[in-house]
Design a protein that fits this description.
The protein is mainly alpha-helical. 65% of the residues lie in helices and 1% in strands. Helix 20 crosses helix 21 and helix 25 packs across helix 26.
């Protein structure tokens, strides 16, 4: 048995006292003690499981409680199972075959209608075997069994919709066909169990499925409500058709910035991926860490300047001044998003076809001229202009190898 923290024990002690000494429901106990029903239920099932089992008619020690599961049918609460267990066993026994369901219910102090509902909902095989046995024994009361014709007609359209290929919730079908939701559910459970079982299988397959427009394990569509769609419709239109950032769009349309971000990430991840230029496939995770941050509004800001630079013949500083941009910001943007253009602007092509940095060319220009026209040594030229002789030599070798060849021939 796991050990509970002292503060948790103190929190739930009054509720535990009521749970042990009274027959109040857990909901009523939590209401009186001002605690969470989910927290109290978890506390009881974890640390006092033997008390929960005892409430459901299973007496055992604390040591045995962990290995005992409560027997119940789908949709039937444990306390309901314990309440009707003996009466249902009597319905399944030949000892009570001469009694009808209402008489058996009275024998056990129960309501006949409620016992009949439990049988039709969770134990239909008991009813079928019982009816056949009573007919063989000549105890048939001649009362009609099964669905009534008017009831069948009333729910016919709803049943057809529920049998369709596309999954629709029972509540939506009830609204569409203008029938009672609880009545339709009961009609399904009583007379269309195979349909209920098929829908349960569909929901089981959809557990943990989070594809937009598809059903989830709860049987509901994974899609935003019409109210939410209407709230963000204008913002989504701007996000799809303009380069404005999500923050600016949210402020412009009067919606919450945080809410709009959350709406985009949940329902329009495809639009985010399209903006960032990465492939997107519904239902598959996106590796955001591999994507470079890229703001479409920033791209629009620099688009005209980049087009002018691509025409050629202009320096970055001159283009930045023309379009009212900061030169260094433009250079940083080019380096990150237009690396080829940035490299081309940083290097100039000479007559011999070599690419050279304008700054380096300016630095070594006079020294190269002396090297080409005189016989003065490289070391002397370097000292005259305050240059490193190795750097000057490497620059000439890399960009003007023909000068070194001419020099050797002259010497």
């Amino acid at each position: 048995m796991p050990t509970c923290k002292p503060e948790t024990e103190a929190k739930y002690r009054p509720a535990l006292g009521l749970y042990t000494t009274t027959r109040l429901s857990s909901v009523e106990i939590c209401r009186q003690c001002g605690i969470s029903i989910s927290g109290f239920s978890r506390y009881i099932s974890t640390y006092h499981r033997h008390l929960m089992l005892e409430r459901n008619g299973i007496r055992c020690s604390e040591a045995e409680a962990g290995s005992i599961k409560i027997s119940q049918r789908r949709g039937q609460r444990p306390e309901t199972h314990a309440k009707y267990k003996e009466a249902i066993a009597a319905c399944d026994s030949m000892d009570y075959i001469e009694y009808n369901v209402s008489q058996i219910a009275r024998e056990f102090g129960l309501n006949g209608t409620n016992l009949g509902r439990q049988l039709r909902t969770h134990y239909p095989e008991v009813l079928e075997l019982r009816e056949r046995a009573r007919k063989r024994s000549g105890l048939d009361d001649g009362l009609p069994r099964g669905t009534r014709s008017w009831c069948k007609e009333q729910y016919a359209e709803a049943i057809e919709l529920l049998r369709a290929d596309r999954y629709i919730t029972v509540q939506d079908v009830a609204v569409r066909c203008n029938v009672s939701y609880s009545g339709l559910e009961q009609h399904l459970i009583f007379y269309h169990k195979e349909l209920v079982d098929n829908r349960i299988k569909i929901r089981k397959k959809a557990v943990r499925q989070r594809c937009k427009g598809e059903i989830t394990g709860r049987g509901t569509l994974h899609a935003p409500t019409p109210e939410i769609i209407g709230k963000y419709a204008k913002a989504i239109h701007l996000y799809r058709t303009t380069p404005l950032s999500a923050r600016k769009i949210a402020k412009q349309t009067g919606v919450s910035v945080k809410g709009f971000y959350e709406y985009l990430r949940t329902w329009h991840k495809d639009l985010i991926c399209r903006r960032k230029g990465i492939p997107y496939e519904e239902g598959k995770p996106v590796d955001w860490s591999s994507v470079r941050r890229y703001n479409p509004s920033t791209a629009a800001k620099y688009a005209d300047a980049i087009a002018r630079l691509k025409e050629g013949g202009f320096t970055t500083a001159k283009v930045a001044a023309e379009f009212g941009l900061h030169p260094e910001c433009l250079r940083r943007y080019l380096k990150e998003h237009e690396p080829e253009l940035h490299a081309g602007l940083a290097m100039k092509k000479m007559e011999n076809g070599k690419m050279v940095s304008p700054k380096s060319m300016e630095k070594y220009k006079e020294a190269i001229h002396l090297y080409e026209t005189t016989s003065e040594s490289l070391k002397s030229i370097s000292r005259r202009f305050g240059l490193n002789d190795c750097s000057l030599g490497q620059f000439i070798k890399r960009h003007f190898p023909e000068l070194m060849e001419h020099r050797k021939l002259r010497e």
